[in-house]
Amino acid sequence: MPDLSEASPAAVAAVLLVCTSTVLVGTFGLRLSRTTSDFYVASRAVSPRWNASAISGEYLSAASFLGIAGLVLTGGADMLWFPVGYTAGYLVLLVLVAAPLRRSGAYTLPDFAELRLGSRRVRLTASVLVVGIGWLYLLPQLQGAGLALRAVTGLPGWVGALLVALVVVLNVAGGGMRSITFVQAFQYWLKLTAIALPAFVLLAVWTGDGRPSPARAGPPVARETTSTRLGTDTTLRVDVGVRLQVHGTVDGRRVDGALDLAPGDRPVLGRGTVVTVPAGAVVPHATRTLAVGGERWVLPLSGAGSRDHPLYSTYSIMLALFFGTMGLPHVLVRFYTNPDGRAARRTTLTVIALLGAFYVFPPLYGALGRVYAADLMLTGRTDSVVLLLPERLIGGIAGELLGALTAAGAFAAFLSTSSGLVMSVAGVVHQDLLRPRRPARRGDPHPTSLRGFRRATLLAVGVPTALSLLGDSLSLADTVGLAFAVAASTFCPLLVLGIWWRGLTRVGAVAGLVAGGALASAAVLTTLLRGSPGGWTGALLAQPAAWTVPAAFAVTVVTSLATRGTLPSNVARTMVRLHAPEDVDVERDPR
After folding, report:
1. 118: phi > 0 → left, psi -120 to 50 → alpha, else beta; which?
2. In terms of domains, do 90 and 235 share one?
3. Which value, to the nearest 10 degrees, does the dihedral of the CA atoms of residues 406, 407, 409, 410 take?
4. CA-to-CA distance for 389 and 414, rounded, in angstroms?
5. Domain tally for the chain?
6. How many Cα atoms sit within 13 Å of 350 on the Cβ side?
7. Can you tell me whether residue 243 is helix, strand or coil?
8. Which of 299, 325, 346, 493 is most buried, judged by most C-beta within 10 A?
9. What is the pLDDT of residues 168-185, one digit of tens each?
10. Which range (101-105, 114-118, 381-385) has the least confidence?
11. What is the pTM of this model?
12. For residue 279, what pLDDT is reported?
């Protein structure tokens, strides 16, 4: 049975309130959504400001709300590329694809692929990749929900994952895109409030506390005597000698009392072991945690923790985040809800401003966690620093209420991003995998179409929920980064070349999608299942975008040049449609 003795009633109430409000909005959306167009793209009638809030709410995921703070806590300045990359990805999207993509008139990425290339094979290939990327991105959302609920209630992680899955199914199946647009716009402002308000209070407490800045704090030190129960078998890395109090198993033998560890030791502590770190002691950290100390924490490209080849890793992360944004299915489907291409550009500019405002705050939690929550490195659960800092620094009713606010914001992040992902994956599963011979048509009012979409929703949620229960060896931000790498290696070449190069052929598009998807997926699966080895092999597998994206572009271009006979016959008309203003009647153009 879970230990609920330390559960925060305010946090539990906040989580339940967020989930209930999401379901109620989804029920309201059911009254407004009558056609396929309502379900998939909200009848393309969402204003830029409303849409920008919804996109921002959808985009700010578990990696943004919890993961960035955890990475900064352990890795320092090297990890700041994540918020920069998440935001800059929309700038690339604005410049290269936002307006032409909206002018295409498609519902989904596979719709665009078929429109541009006139090939069912390209469409099906794109459909499989959309589903795979969507499921990979859903994993950290569900795992983050379990982490958050466990932190505030003591309940096992699977409860949070199932709670998010249930709410998302009710929300998406109830009202589709029109419904989740309302809830995601609201959830952006909730998330901004939930992370900004406690941050200002925490900064005020820190400035009056007299404690050193994170930059001068040196190695991670326990602020006070802290006891932690390990949820899994954990291998510790000891950089500075320390004496711990241990009740459990160490390297397979029972220990009840003091345990002296020397620098370089790698003890394996069994699941359920209780470890007590005395106040003022340097905290040993789990080997899967990239932890740095001293000035390396504030210097970029200094080799965060055990990461090899930091310069390569940094540039690969940047490439994945900058170009992976345009390949995320839940991001692109939002641009089809704009009335026209001009509205799509205005939406993107507003999104950049909203994201920039939010990403100021997660690094602050990571920096303060370096001073007040270094013991989180012992278990590797550094992603929970945002949830735990308010009560650690403030305590009492005020700390509990601020902690409840951050818990509400975290669940809003899980629900909004999961809703958008499930919406996009379910749409593709419904149109192309469950009913491949009859794609959805605009304004299709048939009840069977909506029932099929709801069945697809169950499949879109069920698979990643089952996978999320198997384990969570990577941090939230690392898992999301791998999804970005796959997206950048597949849909970025398809979109950029499909929009700006008329020489893209059907065979070239399929070859590029398969090559990029196979290479990036192999690297991702190897990292997820076997961990990241050391040296160049580990660096290339852990951050594959720097070589998989150029490889995908090269395969696409070379194959297209070699198969010019498969160039679509209507390519000139399609290119005019993508780039001409909306008031130009492309259908009357002879080509």
Report:
1. left
2. no
3. 120
4. 20
5. 2
6. 19
7. strand
8. 493
9. 887 776 655 666 777 788
10. 101-105
11. 0.82
12. 83
